[in-house]
Amino acid sequence: MIRKTKNTLLVLFISQIMFLSLISAQDEVIIEDESDEIVEDSTEVATIESTTDSSRKYEGLFTIYQDSISGKSHMLIRHDQLGKEFIYFTHTTEGLVDAGHVRGGYEGSRIITFERYFNRVEIVAQNTSFYFDPENPLSRAASANISPAILVSQEIIVDDTTNNELLIEVDDVFLTEALHQVKPSPNPNATPGSRFSLGNLNKSKSKYVEIRSYPLNTDLEVEYVYDNPFPTNHGRGGVTDARSVRIHLQHSFVEMPDNNYKPRRDDPRVGYFLTEITDMTSPSNTPYLDVIHRWHLEKKHPNAAISEPKEPITFWIENTTPHEFRDAVKEGIIRWNEAYEVAGFKNAIQAKIQPDDADWDAGDIRYNVIRWTSSPNPAFGGLGPSFVNPRTGQILGADIMLEWIYFTWRVKYEKLYEISAEETLFNPQFCSYGDFLHQENLFGLTALRGIEGSANAQGRLIEEALISLVMHEVGHTLGLAHNFQSSQLHSPETIHDRTVTEKVGVISSVMDYDPVNLNPDQENQGQYYTTKAGPYDLWAIEFGYSSSLEDINKEKARLEAILARSTEPALRFGNDADDMRSPGKGIDPRIMVGDLTNDAVGYSEQRMSLILGLMTNLREKYEIEGETYHAFRDAFNILVREYQNAAKVVTRYIGGIYIDRSLVGQEGGSRPLTPVSYADQKRAMLILSNYVFAPDIFPVPAGVHDHMRFQRRGWNHGGETEDPKIHAQRLTLQKTVLNHLLHPTTLSRINNSMLYGNEYSLSEYMGDLTSAIFDADARGDIDSFRRNLQVEFLTRLIEIMVSGNESSYDHMAKAATHHYILDIRKIVSRKSGDDASIAHREYLAHLIDSALNEG
To answer: In the structure, how many helices (H) and strands (E) does the chain have?
Structure first.
């Protein structure tokens, strides 16, 4: 019994020893684990130096580190830069017209801030459109219902509290569209496959092209690559392979200017680009604090009447500029100095030529560069964008892009049969003057050959055109908007007098789209284009750039004294929002593209008459033995297009209303709205009847139409036939005119303006228009062009008459068209003329009867 008990105790003792040993072993394991954790905790903390030790450093406003092996990039942000405002600006350095991007295209500027949120940094775009007076209690609610945009949120990789710096990775910032949308949003109304579109952004293919950082700005140029494995539209010549397309965009961060720049408020009587700012605490009907865009110019000698600036506006002529054009380009730049002298500055504008071995690139935003390209499908002839401080309107940089094709004989064939880009969307930043000027140059050179103009005359035309274009685009970079009312400066009698125009200009502003000023009498040919700053330009620069007075009330009076001159005929102004280039757009026919003199209707009639005369010997001038017929075909089409442009000018006077933008009580002001006189509207209608609607408006000599053959290039005419589409071209001219004459806005305005002075009633107008299209051949043969026109006109009248309640046409327009449809029904009931004419009248009767029966 005792032995059994001892054995039991021994077993228990051994078990206890083993248990304690196990616990000890576990403790040792735990201790070892804890020891391991201690080793981990003692690992070296990442620093900016260790994180970027294999990177190239770009030191500047924001220091950028790019890994020399992977290309991965980081951005260093100082603590004192958090919460601070910077200007963020983007522009296209290499583009593709089909994708909506062109080299040199500016994408806009905005105010951004870097905000810290715990372990992340956010890039936030600020809304600069509103102002709250800090003295007004409403300012405490300044953030209500206004949403800043958080564009980026990146984790902080290193926070160096010793040097007050932090580091973030930026590949997800710059190699994506986080900061700026590159791929255009799809048009929901477009037919699938009808337009070229970018595929999906391929981040692995996208890359940094160049990184530059300076004390006041940091630039990162990025190549964005878009993949589309199964494209439905392969684009035009600039697209190498639609499955992979690249766009180069430069991101720029700019230090907010720290100077004594004083913003200048906009005034509707003069035209500058502007930044819109609304005072949300003002009770005014027009609480606008809009500021104009202009450079910061300060006099070296503030008390001098005229002084050189401390820092002039310098434009560099890029080394891509053709040598034969460089002198003219330079002239187009420095001729603005005349305007700045009126504002008190001498040599405010300088022009320099970029050396061939320059160590800087035109994409560097520190340089203002005039650049040249020769693109497969250019979107413009000249482009003059600038970027500004959105807070103040101060211009910080600008470039000008010029296209080589617009100074050649090459014709953009897609422009020959279209309705003159009338349906393009309104964009105040877009300038198509180069495109317009190209047509005018082609017409001018074609006409000079036809009327025996000398080679010297042709050279002078091109030189004046280039100076005019450069001055126009430089004007944009100085802040000036278009002024489409400046072409009314001279009478038809003085427009060709060079002793007059060389002193004041062919037009009152280079910011217009003026046609080539061509005199059929070459012995008395004046200037072809304006080549100097006109009266309006001098006045506008004086308003925008003359030095401010310190006293606020005196400064306000000084500016008002300048603006009080706005009623002078040479200083009238109308911008893109006012112009009548598109059907139904605008109301003042003087604010128009392609018009010239204070008798624009008469000048346009002279232009159409000149073109008809040029048609008679066109073959003789353009068919050269041993060459193709291509030049002859081009010349014919150029003349037709110019004829169309002249006709458009005439149409705008029907139903037109003259605008006066003077203030209440301003000296020289007139009624705000004055309808065009009855006599002028009737005159315009008569000219259209004779030159657009009459039978045989183009008495084309025999042997013209059958010689209009273009030069084939491989298979380039594709599925189209080579024969000239003569009827389609003629009808395009007439459609262009009818688009405005029958536009719902035009018809409505004719009725409304009867209440304040218009004497040309809708009934009389529609009667005149119907007569112009039907009376001349109502009892005889109807030629094929008139048959085409009559069907087009009647079809439009029927569409107006049967349009529903949601139609843009008012009841009075529908009633008038119904009345004249019944008149046409009587006309076509006659069974006269040849077989084609009888069949045509029967068809018109069928269209009318069907419409009336359905109604």
So the answer is: 20, 24
